[in-house]
């Protein structure tokens, strides 16, 4: 076996949960919650009210603990079945590969709840038989050719952050499954300052891309919540959306050129232009194809100079309705800052519970004063109010001007400025919140997030109905404690918004929590569709949401996609069974 | 053709109904009903004034943001829905939107309620006095009230009471006040506004007024529907209206009207609310306040216009006794549950929700199914008094019946009714004699005991002219029928099986079913059948008949048992007035009518025709005089395609499909009133055949 490079990254990450090994929520010896590690601002801090919040919200108790198995049990892992001729051919290419159980399991899943649950307590029925690490476009061409020659199944793997079961191997797949890990294709090939574009290999993860561009004074500005781990190729394959899309655009706005290797050959455009009228845009067959057509190897992406100035902000609204009305007005006036998000009351309280211990009496006094002002003086009900967090970017002067405009609108809707600090904490939590599920899993709490996009006039109805549906379904399915069912409006558009839901419950007393969980999630999705929401705004379809594709895009629409698949990949080499 | 007919009917039982069918089946087997409490008892013991002034803090909808009636009106006026229609109309008519807005405001002012606690207290006081005078007891199922209390807090609630009397909505509001529940806003006919003071008083007690017909008026429709929906969405108050649209003059449930129901269902279907509770409420009167008025009305003596002076004149009834009222508040039905799996998930996704949109066929069918389901639930919980049984027996034994036999038969019918799932209020310790006697006392105006025989009360019978005798008799019979009618919807399925058995004179299940199915179609406006489940109804009928040992069934055959013939003939006799009445009406149509006629012309025509037959003693079917039956028969003929409805300059013309009437007339061997014309337009063979089959069947019974 050829020594491989994938290990370095893999070793930094948890094998059975989200993110870095060294970063996690724990309860310290005093029974207080704490976030470990030094990677995040919250690292090493004690969160005095978090425990109480968990107990109150979920009825969970520290005494009832479940534990994941400590490490992978290699004996449970399905054996790697790879044809020797293929191995010979593969060795000849000098592309590194591995048939090691841990490597294969690591690439057998994304981060859906059921996948993590399986890692902790069971084993996947089918996992990749072999992992390959191409280092460049040509390597990928060779691998795809070999796969065609030996009739193998390729599943491209980027950052592994999928939440749509897209990385799960189809159980019934009899051919050898090759996990094509793009992580070693992570170079910036060139930067074109005149046209403000950069050509980047698709395996690069978000944080590296931004770091490396920053060295030259640029950024892409594409910041999905998973940007620490997700890859450029993955963004293209799922039609990703970034937090700051108001300034930089979503992936479809950012991409100038894509190179993709398919069983039919390489697909790409002949030039790198801002727009062209040459029939339907072939990029749109690629973006959102979820690994069913080929492997994206190189992407030319727009870049911008790193902004001179960033400023966070937050606004408190008396209730969610007023908050949504304000966001709608901001969208109408097209003056949305880089990011504007509105969290509902439950999420506001959640954020509150993650407040670290204050350093001085003075801050604590100040906090008390703020609270007094908002609840007593302004008469906001702490159990109803909600908060919008803001992020402004650009040159200093324009940011301040912009800020004033947005705050003026907020005032019209009863909003009160609530400080930079709250805003910043809100965005930091975006990255940290993903770690909380692992903590919950230790205490019988399971949860997940899901998203949708919806026209403005239906935002409120959809949020209310979906949250209510979750509560009811939980009750019907015998969940003993009321679930956490909360949402936030995370993106604004001219014609609608993107809404993000968090949903978690305590599953003690339920024999098959994952099944119950899946039923509830499905009900929630049906509710979204009934309320005029979309099947997905940016998570994609994968295998998790396939059942609704037909009603989402019509029979003919589905047929159109199928015929593309049939032409590009007639032997279903890219057989991950996503989407269609 | 039997098998073909069978097949077709079978196919028409749509798969989509499976949910409803299942739930109905469940209800059939688990009929456990709540206990009643008398709410007047408390009133007779304590001060009405204190009761009226009590601290009233009703439970309200959890999502309610409290607002005044006027705030609702302005919200309605400013709503996108109404503004859209105003702009549309302004553009079309070339008028300024302000003028139309003004018009909308006037409509709102005419329509809107202005609920005030003062008026409510006034009603609480006066109604206490009046109800105590009129009624012995007002019985309510308290568990139902508790369920309602939960429902009101959880989701917007729509109250759907049965409608037999003006007392209905007064009583219901009174009841909710008594139980400290949010008072409903009530859709009332605009005629009430004609009553001085009273109209305004009702408005303040929560009534809002709708015009009787406003099909063509888009502005009115927009304002009205938005007004109702705004109240529903905000959870302002429970919304109350009558599915039957008007008071049933016959005490038989009327077929539902869909307009208001589809309005209140819309907020859920558009997902503007999470769910809506529909609460069927059954209000049963031991003696109906308006009983004689109704009888006159059915015989064509017009209904007096609602007026305050009329109301004052009617106060002499205060000295009369109207027995007990039973109010059964049914289980709140979640609209969401009804719709799940039934309605395509996103029928409203592709058009902005504020645009007026004609509901799709799916939705219309769903609304209709819900309406019928609610009425069936009302029927299920209607309380039947012993007198109802007495009336049913008396009508089969005119002119006089032995008292002892009557008691015996009443007891027998009680058992049968219970087998069929009827809800009889008959105290355990009450002996049959007392029950019958107390019924006779309460209804002394209808029947009395003379020399050990019970006779109908048609006083002055001997002196009058023939016409007057017939009229008096018809009055008494129609009044008596009002009580028998309360049994009919409980009995209709097994009874139509019994009638079909007699008509076909065959034991083959297929034949009996196809006759049953046809009768069910013919009587579809007369009785309440859930749409499209003919086979299910047939099976239920057979099941109930088997349960009381009246018939035995095998795979292929149905035959009456020896002991069952009594039941079978009782059941078919119970429905004989309808079979005969329809036959008379068909005969009139074939013989007497011109090619086209209006409903207004038809009804006096039929009435005179039947009246003459009665005078000559050629028929005994007094019930054919009822305008209700005449209208239903006509509606059935329209539905069967035997009569066509044409709209000509604002008057409806009913155009008898000539070919059908030819064959019908041919059946009766009567001369044709009009020349043979061969109409080839779409009158399908099969329907014609089944019509013929009906006529033959009807003749059989008559022989």
Structural summary, described in words:
Chain A: FAD binds at residues 156-162, 238-241, 290-296. The complex is a heterodimer of chains A (580) and B (703). With 580 residues, chain A is of the alpha+beta class. In chain A, 38% of the residues lie in helices and 20% in strands. Chain A is built from 19 helices and 21 strands. Chain A has helices spanning 7-12, 50-58, 84-93, 101-106, 113-121, 137-150, 206-215, 232-238, 245-248, 251-254, 283-286, 320-332, 345-353, 361-377, 396-412, 420-442, 459-476, 513-530, 549-568, and strands spanning 25-27, 33-35, 46-47, 96-98, 130-133, 153-157, 177-181, 188-192, 197-201, 218-219, 255-262, 265-267, 295-302, 304-305, 309-317, 339-343, 386-394, 416-417, 445-455, 484-492, 496-506. In chain A, the strands form five sheets. A seven-stranded antiparallel beta sheet of chain A has the order 18-15-17-16-20-21-19, sandwiched between helices. The radius of gyration of chain A is 24 Å and the shape is globular. Chain B is α/β, with parallel strands linked by helices and 703 residues long. In chain B, helix 8 (117-134) packs across helix 10, helix 21 packs antiparallel against helix 22 (509-522) and helix 21 packs across helix 23. Chain B is globular and about 70 Å long. Chain B starts with a helix and ends with a helix. The A-B interface holds A 457-458, 461-462, 464-465, 468-469, 526, 529-532, 551 and B 271-272, 274, 345-346, 348-349, 352-353.
